[in-house]
Amino acid sequence: MICQAGYANVLPPGELRIGRQFSEGDEVPVSGDEDAVFGVLYEMDPADELLLDGYEGVDHAAGPSRCDKKVAVEIRPREQGRGEYNKWYVPATVTRWLDEEQRVLRMGAAAVAASGPQVTTVLVYVDEERVRLGFPRDEYIPRMNRAIREAVSIGFPKQWAEEVMRKAIPLN
């Protein structure tokens, strides 16, 4: 979804919603026929993650999560605080690894040969405050068009991109 700030956001499933996600999140349509989120994962070291946190506006001074009965602390360790986005660590099913060589190094050749889709924990930046649909900022449209083209070229589901992303990102 594109939230009212003009950038992409992820709305958690109903059982994990907190705050405004309850009162304002029902206006967001499901993500295609499968109601799933597709994306490209990147492996980062801690220094790169810290740098990305800066671009995403994460408030490192925010207190610990107060929603631990609703959302596990392992998923949402901190409050959003004054940040633009908060960090959530969620399970994701990897249907295809683009760098098979790295996968073999991590799991071993026999494990790779025997395994199907793999579940791994991924970092997702979630704006918990701005959860209503909005329009993309003008500067964001070309970046997202490039991201869509590149993702589809490496195997991202084109139908999902058209059904879900094109609703908010016009061709330019």
Reading the helices and strands in chain order gives HHEHHEHH
Based on Cα principal axes, name the global outline: globular
Low-confidence segments: none
Approximate strand percentage:
5-15%
What distance lies between the first and last C-alpha atoms, to the nearest angstrom? 18 Å
pLDDT averaged residue by residue: 85
Largest sheet: 2 strands, antiparallel
The number of helical elements comes to 6
The order of strands across the largest sheet is 1-2
Structural class from helices and strands?
Answer: alpha+beta
Radius of gyration over C-alpha positions, nearest whole angstrom: 17 Å
Q: Specify the helix fraction band.
A: 25-40%
Word description of this protein:
The protein is α+β, with helices and mostly antiparallel strands and 172 residues long. The protein is 30% helix and 10% strand. It has 6 helices and 2 strands. It has helices at residues 20-24, 46-56, 100-107, 109-114, 140-153, 158-165, and strands spanning 86-94, 118-126. A two-stranded antiparallel ribbon has the order 1-2. The longest helix has 14 residues, at 140-153. The chain is globular and about 45 Å long. The chain starts with 19 loop residues before the first helix and ends in a 7-residue tail after the last helix. The relative contact order is 0.21.
